[in-house]
């Protein structure tokens, strides 16, 4: 009796019954950087813009748009070659890329905080394809990263080369894409996603138990006269503010009305307001849908 060893069952069929004849991928146009434990529970939710917007508001996803250049620094698969010229693979190659963005300087400085961060990365391309890793065919995550490094800003050059904000990413395992990759081209464009902007809340002038004025602004560096270039944030309502007493108890009920002055300042009419703090509610709870996050709290001293 002859024993026949059948290995073909471990091979995948290579037939294709779809309408496309080649893969749809174009050059990468942006990156979604997520916390290491972020995942999307179903492929249906992977296709929803709300899934990504909610993750941005929750602080588990960060958006880097408008990629200008990308340099492939990937390593090749390494092989052992015997004296008789026979080869076997010994180490798989890894994906490594240098991404070059043109960012506002304040954003460039905040990008430095991602160096050596424990994150994963979801790239998307110019045709709206979003690439993810799905080991079990259900959950989707970003691709594992072994190194992420925000490089120093390059200088603008006389030949027209702009000042880039370079970001180097070494991906941990090429098999995450080549064996377990999934992509979706949703009906919306990932290029429309925007990251949270940090804003400050400050008290303007003096405060009383019946009234005070607060400003909400984005710190956009320095103006030509050396003063801080504050960009006012309009569009907030009473429910977007959170106020506590000095003892830490809520005193939102002491605020009767909040008037948006249209320039980033807000007038508060109160009844029995006490010395305490003022800030914004969490981004997910903002009624206006603005993608902003308070950098801290302002002290309201009632005189």
Q: How would the global form be characterised? A: elongated
* Helical stretch tally: 4
Q: First CA to last CA: what distance?
A: 101 Å
Protein structure class: mainly beta
| Sequence of strands across the biggest β-sheet | 2-1-7-9-10-6-3
Low-pLDDT windows of residues: none
Radius of gyration: 26 Å
List keywords for this structure.
2 domains; 303 residues; seven-stranded antiparallel beta sheet; mainly beta; six-stranded mixed beta sheet; single chain; Immunoglobulin-like
Give an overview of the whole structure.
The relative contact order is 0.15. It contains 4 helices and 20 strands. The strands form 5 sheets. Strands 2-1-7-9-10-6-3 form a 7-stranded antiparallel β-sheet. Strands 12, 13, 14, 16, 17 and 19 form a 6-stranded mixed β-sheet that branches. The protein is mainly beta and 303 residues long. The mean pLDDT is 95. Helices cover 8% and strands 38% of the residues. It has helices at 43-46, 49-58, 105-111, 175-178; strands at residues 28-35, 61-64, 67-72, 78-81, 87-91, 96-101, 119-125, 130-133, 143-150, 165-171, 181-184, 197-204, 211-222, 228-232, 241-245, 255-260, 265-270, 276-280, 292-294, 298-300. The radius of gyration is 26 Å and the shape is elongated. The protein has 2 domains: 26-76 and 92-192; 197-300, Immunoglobulin-like (Sandwich), CATH 2.60.40. A hairpin with a 4-residue loop joins strand 16 and strand 17 (265-270). The longest helix is centred in the first third of the chain and has 10 residues, at 49-58.
